[in-house]
Amino acid sequence: MKAITYTASAFVLAGHTLDAQDCPGYTASQVTQNGHGFAADLTIAGANCQAFGNDIADLALEVGYQTKERLNVRIYPKDIAPANSSWFILPPHLVDQPEWDGKTTANSSDLKFEWSNDPTFQFRVLRASNNEELFSTYGHVIVYEDQFLELVTNMVEDYSIYGLAENIHDFRLGNNYTQTFYAVDAGNSIDRNVYGVIPFYQETRYHNGLDTTSHGVYARNAHGQEWLMRENTITYRTLGGSFDLYFLSGQSGNGGSSALTTIAQFQTGCIGTPAMQMYWTFGFHQARWGYENISINQAVVEGYRDANIPLECFWNDLDIYDLYRDFTNNNVTFPLPEFTQWIEELHANGQHYVPIIDSNIYVSNPNNASDTYAPYENGKNLQTFIRDPTTGDFYFGDNWPGFSVWGDWLIPSTQEWWTNEIVTWYKGTPFDGIWIDLSEAASFCAGSCGNGRLTENPIHPPFLLPGDPLTFDFNYPEGFNISNATEAASAAAASASQSSALSASPILPAATTTTQGRTEPTPGVRNLNYPPYVINNVQAGHALGKSSIEPNATHNDQYNTTEYEMHNLFGLQISNATYHALLEVFPGRRPFTVGRSVFAGSGKTTSHWGGDNTSTWGSMFLSISQAFTMMMSGIPMFGADTCGFARNTDYQLCSRWMELSAFFPFYRNHNVKATIGQEAYRWSSVAESSRRAMAVRYSMLTYMYTLFYYAHTKGETVMRALAWEFPSDSTLRETFNQFLLGPSILVTPVLVPNADTVQGVFPGIGEGERWYDWYTLAEVKAQPHENVTMSAPLEHINVHVRGGSILALQQPKLTTRDTRNTPYSLLVALDDNGQAKGSLYLDDGESLEPNATRLVQFSYSDNCLEFSSEGQYHASQPLSNITITGLAGSVNSTGCYPRRNGGWAHHGGPQHSSMHYGGKNCDTGGFQTSYSNGVLKVSGMDKYTKDGAFQENLKLCFEW
């Protein structure tokens, strides 16, 4: 084995730099036009290069104008044997493959494709309206080998691209960064590969302030891959598959382009829009690895109730299982039927329950009759597990319970088996959703390490577990030594003592691993476990088989497809399987799953959390950009482990994180064993921070639910980067210390320790935008682009409402059920023109296909508030009050001020009011009103809307 050094752009082997761009490229010929594009042959333009694999001499090129806004370029081997098709072609039944809409032609497209054979085949994609070059391989060759593909595009100076999820990195990816895609069990893997693979980016160009354009690129390929962002180029490399590129114009009907439109085009046209979530899932969730019995579960639930902090859903980690085995209950700590009864008590209180399911299945010890494990035996009978090609038997890796196997989602019997296990388990553990973990899929050893060793099961993982002797975590967040100096000193001393004891008496032998790097390409041979090109995988030696199923493991389909092709799809497949299993448990109800590994299109069946982060301020900070990439990727039900998973939090970090996560769609506190507890009620400051932030969140649940309706139906984003909503402001292109919830709510969290102020910008001020403090409704006074310093005591998070918005709100309670049963109110925040608009979507909150829905459209202009309501869903709660902020509030001698008793006094308010509800004139004399500093409050609406707030259309006008 020769010495190898990995670099970001090439490999150095025995002192020689290998550069795939030295390969000959291809020449196009035999061009054939069709109604919506053309096809051609590509022939290698010189001797085989064999840079990182075996060259494919003859390729097929297909260029298709699929829709007005989408252009597809496909390059794949011209002649593919059926048995080898999965090497190169990603089947459409696994991942959606967009096709022609039947009407778009080159003449009607937003995009234009140009190509040349000088000196070899190269192409570029332009915007048809102005010839803006969006993607160009000119000056570079295309490399196509059986284990290595490379394509280079030229980029504009100082380009701004976003996406390429999943990454834990700055929001703007920059031009000196390599994004590796290989799903991996590596928590908080900053600037490296992590759990998800969604090869899509969106680019924004500011054009020197003249205008802003946006477009997107999606590379439909599931192989291990890398995207190398460099000063003037992006290099796209994969370990196999094909070039299946989708270019999105980002243009809307008016001809302009934007990031939000580009993202919507990716979702609606390429991968599918995200699933609609059940209403209750937007409540607060509490989890921990370390809730070791029913009594602890009960104490946590009671702790939240006693502290008057909302708790919607309780989650159990591995603690509930017998010896870490899926679909079991520990009969000592979680005995049935006591455990069943406890879950039903949650349900009676309007709360919910979600347990974990790991992606591996324990293998029964063949020499121990008492060790028979039914889920394994059932799957074994159906032959549903991935196989070891060296033995023909199942692939026996290692995970929490010991030697384990994994389901083969390519064959139908695996769905049958998986559904049966989930349905059977539900009978004793009546859960409301499923948490899918380790779905990369992760294995704790290299190779099929259980071969010949199954009689040793159950085995301990080859490392210490949290909770094992000498494993307590003494790490605390930055700033802890300032806020808790004495405790920090004690923790440092205890950590040193523990490390000394562990080094003196190792409890387990060092884990074996593999660090083999690059292998020489051999003619006619594909090396799957050690490909010639080594992607920058986070695991030791960049090895693909470290901590995962090895790439040469085979499936049971007719072609024995390997994990080399399928690895990055395991998370997508197990989420799909769990989704369909839950439809059997709850027919007609929206399944709720939260998966760790995701691929493009996963949002159609699952939600996602940020994985094993740490209790650090940096981890909290980066969760915002991670969330943005999930919004782009069609997985809006996203949240980080609030207060951090690994290490210890403290009251400052946990307070700030509970506040921040209150504005993420998925809101869950979760941490690991061998650390301190971090439930929100454990510190008075965290409890108060949580109550205040949750009061804001729960009051606007209807707004968040409506945002999800538009995400589900139109591909709109839920959390939004400021740059998306204000595309003409180039100063926002790297801003991710603030964010928007939908178009209307601006959140400015504190992201550093020992601070009682925070700085933030208010986009659009000076250009017609107005912003109002959520808590006081006072209008923000700031200069354009000013970084405003705001008060931010520990229990407070700054939230502002955008002028021009109308929000339907409800009174926050301890559960979403109780919150949803309170009267509605409307908050009208006026823009510079004295106008506002908004919408509200209503249904039963859980049906997959609701029998009845209602969509309400609000508007305010010319001193009149109106709403129109369409649909059959009946929301019985009345509309109790209306608040309008941003009115002209200066005191003058004309006009009248409305008193609380319905009379009027001179003070610059409205003189008269009139209301039409359901086509009838209403007497407004019974209103209770107040007006001060530009804020008009109208209450007493209940009497007019007692049959339901939005059953009829309304128009309420004021004369000033």
TrEMBL record:
The keyword Hydrolase applies. Residues 715-807 form the Glycosyl hydrolase family 31 C-terminal domain. Residues 274-707 form the Glycoside hydrolase family 31 TIM barrel domain. Coiled coil: none annotated. Its EC number is 3.2.1.20. Keywords: Glycoprotein, Glycosidase, Hydrolase, Signal. Pfam families: Glyco_hydro_31_2nd, Glyco_hydro_31_3rd. SUPFAM superfamilies: (Trans)glycosidases (SSF51445), Galactose mutarotase-like (SSF74650), Glycosyl hydrolase domain (SSF51011). InterPro entries: Gal_mutarotase_sf_dom, GH, Glyco_hydro_31_C, Glyco_hydro_31_CS, Glyco_hydro_31_TIM, Glyco_hydro_b. One of its GO terms (molecular function) is alpha-1,4-glucosidase activity. It catalyses: Hydrolysis of terminal, non-reducing (1->4)-linked alpha-D-glucose residues with release of alpha-D-glucose. GO terms for biological process: carbohydrate metabolic process. Gene3D superfamilies: Glycosidases (3.20.20.80), glycosyl hydrolase (family 31) (2.60.40.1760), Golgi alpha-mannosidase II (2.60.40.1180). PANTHER family: ALPHA-GLUCOSIDASE, P-TYPE DOMAIN-CONTAINING PROTEIN. Belongs to the glycosyl hydrolase 31 family. This is alpha-glucosidase.
